[in-house]
Amino acid sequence: MSLLQTALVADYFIPKGSNVLLSRLGLGRNPTVWDQPLRFNPDRHLHEKRCDLSETDLRFISFTTGRRGCIGGELGTNMTVMLLGRLLQGFKWTIPEGMESIDLSTEESSMFKVL
Question: Model-level pTM greater than 0.70?
Answer without folding.
Answer: no
